[in-house]
Task: inverse folding
């Protein structure tokens, strides 16, 4: 027992010793850690006076101790070499908070003197005092000159367009060969320039023609190169020089240049007659990079003096060899410049053999072409070649998509039809369901909510019959050509904004034995690439002249217009942006003499409004029409003719009637939608139904306002009496009217712009343009224009009320008649 207790006591004391050792080692380790961490702190020299005075007494002795010889820690412990790094000053480190609102970038031009930064130099040379000598160099900030930046970021970054094609042609070939090249290449290249040997005034519209006034034919290429180097070199990466009797495949040329790197000097073409030749043949086309053209421009004087040959290939090649030291190559970036040159080429004789060769199908140019008919045949042939290539590519992509669909979550075979087209639109609610239009070969049913059946317009007719013809063609390929089209049984069309137009057609076919077959075809016309149409810059600050024609019986209507405009329009418009022109329309001289008296009530209202809105400009005018038989749809032409001498040629005009309710937002849209010489604006207003019929089905508390609801009115797309345009556009169409000797007394201004000009016409519903109800009279005078007479009849029928409202009135009348008849019988 004693032994065991002694053993326990000994082991207990041993454990206490171990614990005390552990605690002692931990304490020593912590102390050494603190000492070493303080010793290894980076030495800081703070430039701020408030901070440096505080830290100076601590940093100086420590620096002195670390820079001494034998007693310093870094000489004793080689592993602590990190202490030998010089202390970093706070002035050496600049922290910029980019999220701060005060941060503004600054531009430091390279041509100014450099700014010397603050530098701290520690002299570690051992001297008698063993002290560091710190020298702080002065900071000198130069006066920065403001830099003028480019208007467009593409100019500042040096972004250029792809290619310019320069064609050397003759004056008498502008309307033949040059016109053909312009029409076939303009969709594939960025610019086409035609260089002719003389000044010319009559050339096709849309062509860029440059005249070379020098009869020496061998110098024409140098004039062309000089023009390109001076005018176009900053805008394009590649320049393609060619003659006009060369057929060019624009699609292949664009595809070829897309595979070539622009960061190289390139003199590319097809060497002629000799594989070792260093000159590219001009007839098959020459591609020059912008860098090579820049070098040619420097040596252009030498090239002109040494152009002793009549061969354009030799003159251009010699110039490139002198300026850029480059021979002709036909390969760049692993892409080959293929061309076909044959002076005895005949399309009908040679195309059968050439079509089987891959080199001819991949060629970029064909030279020479001696007649325009061969050009057209080549264009048709290569179009078919490109279609076949695209068809094969589409099939490969479809197969790839079908194979890849097996790895999708939906599994194999669950990709939407057709392959590669986005899936159909899925409506989130029942209000967004896409409608289907039912059609036959001549009519479309239920095209709108207001139409039961509508005769196909020209574009609809072409669209649907193209679908029918294509369906019959595909069915004949599958079931045999003995099946002939008999008629269309059913047709359905749906436009999906996410993928395109979807068609389902049921076609009745008949064979030679008069046996009938019904086949259903499903087709899709996918949407193409979306193009952004460049439009000129317009603002909402343009001054607008609102012309308000008022007939003699519309005085109260005009006053109502002024009351409504006083609430919604006049407080937001100023004299710099808006002017109201009240115009009294009269047909007799007696009315014309009484016009001042007629304006008294309106003038009183205007005076009251002007007392509140003193910034307004409201003027009074009177227009005497030649005859009283001029219809309403022709009066806008007489109004514009009347104001042509009173307004500036660049005036923005909006012409309407006093039945409308408009606000300032609508006028701003008018300012943006009307573009001089480009676009005019014919908004579609929301026309009110007959107030008596509306009151029977809807509680109306205030008849002065029009609610946007289907039981209150409809968007009248058959009226063209709201017009926004510039006076200059009317003057231009007026010249065409007089040139073609058109009678304006029976014409609509909208129809004149459609028939005589190429201006864009923006026609769309506008919810802010609301028109009060007025009775429409279709007089016999309107019958001189059958189209206007038909429009008038439709407006009179649809403008009364909706079909459901009219049906309710008919039902009520029938019930009242039945009740009255029963009472009479009793």
Result:
């Amino acid at each position: 027992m004693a032994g065991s207790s002694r053993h326990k006591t000994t082991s207990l004391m041993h454990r206490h010793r171990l614990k005390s050792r552990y605690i002692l080692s931990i304490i020593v380790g912590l102390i050494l850690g603190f000492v070493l961490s303080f010793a290894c702190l980076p030495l800081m020299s703070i430039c701020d006076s408030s901070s440096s005075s505080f830290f100076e007494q601590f940093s100086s002795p420590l620096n002195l101790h670390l820079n001494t010889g034998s007693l310093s820690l870094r000489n004793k412990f080689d592993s602590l070499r990190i202490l030998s790094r010089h202390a970093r000053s706070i002035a050496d480190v600049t922290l910029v908070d980019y999220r701060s609102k005060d941060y503004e970038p600054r531009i430091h031009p390279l041509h100014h003197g450099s700014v010397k930064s603050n530098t701290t130099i520690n002299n570690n040379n051992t001297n008698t005092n063993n002290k560091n000598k710190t020298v702080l160099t002065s900071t000198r900030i130069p006066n920065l000159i403001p830099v003028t930046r480019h208007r467009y970021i593409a100019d500042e970054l040096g972004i250029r367009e792809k290619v310019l094609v320069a064609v050397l042609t003759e004056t008498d070939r502008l309307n033949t060969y040059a016109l053909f090249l312009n029409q076939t290449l303009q969709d594939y290249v960025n610019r086409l320039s035609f260089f002719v040997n003389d000044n010319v005034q009559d050339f096709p519209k849309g062509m860029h023609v440059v005249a070379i006034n020098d009869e020496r034919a061998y110098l024409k290429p140098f004039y062309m190169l000089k023009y390109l180097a001076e005018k176009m070199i900053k805008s394009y990466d590649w320049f393609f020089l060619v003659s006009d009797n060369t057929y060019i495949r624009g699609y292949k040329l664009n595809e070829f240049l897309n595979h070539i790197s622009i960061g190289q000097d390139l003199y590319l073409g097809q060497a002629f007659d000799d594989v070792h030749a260093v000159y590219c043949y001009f007839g098959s086309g020459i591609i020059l990079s912008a860098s090579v053209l820049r070098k040619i421009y420097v040596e252009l004087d030498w090239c002109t003096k040494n152009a002793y040959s009549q061969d354009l290939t030799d003159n251009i090649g010699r110039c490139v060899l002198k300026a850029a030291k480059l021979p002709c190559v036909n390969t760049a970036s692993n892409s080959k410049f293929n061309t076909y040159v044959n002076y005895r080429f005949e399309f009908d004789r040679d195309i059968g053999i050439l079509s089987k060769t891959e080199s001819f199908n991949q060629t970029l140019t064909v030279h020479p072409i001696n007649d325009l008919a061969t050009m057209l045949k080549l264009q048709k042939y290569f179009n078919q070649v490109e279609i076949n290539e695209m068809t094969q590519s589409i099939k490969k992509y479809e197969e790839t998509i079908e194979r890849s669909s097996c790895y999708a979550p939906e599994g194999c075979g669950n990709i939407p039809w057709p392959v590669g087209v986005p899936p159909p639109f899925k409506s989130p609610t029942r209000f967004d369901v896409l409608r289907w239009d039912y059609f036959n070969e001549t009519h479309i049913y239920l095209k709108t909510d207001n139409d039961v059946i509508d005769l196909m317009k020209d574009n609809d007719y072409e669209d649907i019959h193209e679908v029918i013809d294509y369906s019959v063609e595909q069915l004949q390929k599958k079931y045999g050509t003995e099946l002939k089209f008999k008629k269309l049984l059913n047709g359905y069309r749906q436009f999906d904004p996410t993928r395109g137009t979807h068609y389902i057609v049921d076609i009745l076919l008949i064979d030679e034995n008069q046996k009938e077959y019904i086949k259903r075809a499903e087709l899709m016309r996918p949407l193409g690439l979306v193009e952004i149409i460049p439009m000129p810059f317009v603002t909402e600050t343009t001054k607008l002249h609102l012309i308000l024609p008022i007939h003699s019986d519309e005085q109260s209507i005009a006053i109502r217009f002024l009351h409504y405009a006083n609430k919604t329009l006049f407080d937001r418009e100023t004299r710099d942006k808006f002017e109201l022109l009240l115009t009294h329309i009269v047909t007799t001289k007696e009315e014309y003499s009484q016009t001042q008296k007629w304006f008294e009530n309106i003038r009183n209202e205007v005076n009251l409004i002007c007392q509140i809105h003193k910034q307004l400009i409201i003027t009074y005018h009177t227009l005497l029409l030649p005859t009283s038989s001029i219809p309403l749809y022709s009066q806008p032409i007489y109004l514009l003719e009347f104001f042509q001498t009173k307004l500036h040629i660049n005036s923005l005009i909006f012409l309407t009637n006093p039945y409308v309710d408009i606000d300032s937002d609508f006028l701003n849209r008018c300012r943006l939608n009307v573009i001089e010489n480009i676009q005019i604006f014919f908004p579609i207003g929301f026309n009110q139904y007959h107030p008596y019929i509306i009151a029977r089905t809807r509680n109306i508390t205030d008849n002065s306002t029009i609610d946007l609801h289907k039981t209150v009115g409809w968007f009248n797309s058959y009226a063209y009496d709201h017009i926004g345009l510039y006076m200059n556009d009317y003057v231009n169409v007026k010249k065409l009217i007089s040139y073609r000797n058109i009678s304006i007394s029976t014409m609509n201004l909208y129809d004149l712009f459609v028939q005589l000009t190429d201006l864009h016409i923006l026609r769309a519903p506008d919810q802010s343009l609301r028109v009060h109800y007025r009775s429409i009279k279709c007089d016999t005078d309107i019958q001189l224009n059958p189209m206007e007479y038909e429009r008038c009849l439709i407006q009179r029928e649809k403008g009364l009320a909706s079909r459901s409202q009219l049906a309710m009135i008919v039902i009520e009348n029938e019930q009242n008649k039945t009740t009255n008849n029963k009472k009479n019988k009793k």
Remarks:
- The longest strand covers residues 484-496.
- Residues 156-384 form a domain with the Spore Coat Polysaccharide Biosynthesis Protein SpsA; Chain A fold (CATH 3.90.550.50).
- The chain is about 40% helix and 20% strand.
- The chain has three domains: 156-384, 437-526, 544-807.
